[in-house]
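[job 4471] stage=fold_predict status=RUNNING
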Amino acid sequence: EVIYHFYNCTLFILQALGHVARKGGGIVMRGLIVGVLVALAQGALATDLPEPLSDGDFRPVRGEEAALGQLLFYDPLLSGNKEVACATCHHPSLGTGDGLSLSLGDGGKGLGLKRVVDSQNLPEQRVPRNAQPLFNLGAKQIRALFHDGRVEVDAARASGLRTPLEDEMVGGFASIISAQTMFPVLSGDEMAGHYSENNISQAVRRGTLTGKNGAWDLIAQRVAKVPQYANDFVAVYPHITRPDDIAFTDVSNAIAVFMELEWRSDTAPFDAVLRGQGSLSTDAGKGMELFYGAAGCASCHSGALLTDHGFHAMGQPQLGPGKGARFESHARDEGRFRVTGVEADKYAFRTPSLRNVVLTGPWGHAGAYSDLTAFVAGHADPRAALAAFDRSGAILTEFDAADWRIMDDPAEVAAIANAVKIDPVLLTAQEVAEVVAFLGTLTDTAAQTGRLGVPKSVPSGLAVPNP
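[job 4471] inference complete, writing structure tokens
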């Protein structure tokens, strides 16, 4: 506590020095004193806090491109049955997720906790993994996406990316987040619909993804037929001179730029601390001490994005259909192993950024926890948490699905537990509460609200997803 108060006092002095400098100069002396005090403050924390984020950490964006991407992000036109938009599972009112453990994409109606099964278009299954948040996807540090990292930057490949599609993956992506956008539109559970329901799902079923009348081309054709979109693409992209020039990579590039602008997050209270311009409450300060010290959180949640961009087995409960090939009948999700085939990667999932983490529940790759305090406590001792897991913490839309097949099988649960490599950390309930208080300082109201917001309508005339 003494260390924490020293840290807060230091920040107060920094702010006072800033005021003095504005009133009467002394820039050189102020700079020397500030440097000494910052060093003392960081030393008092017994660790090096990350450098604050700056414009140089993000790709530049064009406003007109982002505005076009905003409309496309909220437009169900991109889905096979014209009922699901990107925003259906990634809505700003729900922390850029959907508030559910596992989403219902195609085959659902409504948004978030109000989403229900469409009796006229029954889904085959839930989306296998929790909808990930979209904050800071424009950061240059991010080189892998999805829970298992199956889309990765790889300069050795012609497309510049390693993806499950390998040679079928086309070029023309401006960023890895643009490439990621290519996959939900192909998923029957997410946006494409199933098999014979529409021409896009039929193309996916045939395996015709690229080329004329491939699944991606069919979506681009839909967009090009909407006059406003046709005009906007010509205005925004110099290489597009007529509607027929629009490719799905152009669509995905615009959506990516919108996400990069809309949910950039670097103005949270924690960012003010990193810049020497703010301080934390007593509990949050103690939580930061634990996070960067005895609790060991920063060993994985490091850097200004609070992620090491790695993959770790943390004993997360598995619910829902799992992640397997169509011919496989199990409900297992072995995470990174399905990408690499390396035994040590079984049940390992990508370390998520903790930016705005308070807003982004339920937590875990399958959304097993709807209580952040329980999730943090479970992370401190994953094996014990898995053994004592309370299923009532999952938030699932009512749907006739065998959601607990893995957790009902002791051998499967043991396999998840045995993959955990970290030693347990003993934290009291008060210490867990303090860590959670610190996590609250990662909430950025500017990113939470977004810069462009939710459009009232979209050019297709279809309904914009809204609570």
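[job 4471] summary: The CA atoms of residues 47 and 177 lie 32 Å apart.
[job 4471] exit 0
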